[in-house]
Specification:
This protein is of the alpha+beta class and 86 residues long. It has a single domain, classed as Heat Shock Protein 90, CATH 3.30.565.10. It has two helices and four strands. A four-stranded antiparallel beta sheet has the order 1-2-4-3, covered by helices on one side. The longest helix is centred in the middle third of the chain and has 11 residues. The model has no long low-confidence stretch (mean pLDDT 86).
Length: 86
């Protein structure tokens, strides 16, 4: 879902997967952090750190909330008039 709020574009991504515990949420944007272990389901732990860096380069923010029902990532990016409205 996307919407405009106070001069910012807000993108919300939600899924109903398992809850992300607090210890993992504190590390989720750190480079090389992964919960995957070997085998065919390996992860390098770079995806969310790259996303966070890109969002911050555009003066935005990204946050994650998770409970037993859903996990939500919320990205906020400034809307600049010279680029037009989203």
């Amino acid at each position: 879902m996307t919407k405009e709020a106070r001069g910012r574009l807000v993108v919300t991504i939600t899924n109903n997967g398992p809850q992300i515990n607090e210890a993992t949420r504190r590390q989720i944007f750190q480079p090389n952090f992964t919960t995957k272990k070997g085998g065919l389901s390996f992860g390098l732990g770079l995806g969310l750190s790259i996303v966070q860096r890109l969002v911050q380069q555009y003066n935005g923010s990204i946050a994650v909330k998770s409970d037993e029902h859903k996990t939500t990532f919320r990205i906020r990016l400034p809307i600049e008039e010279e680029y037009g409205k989203a």
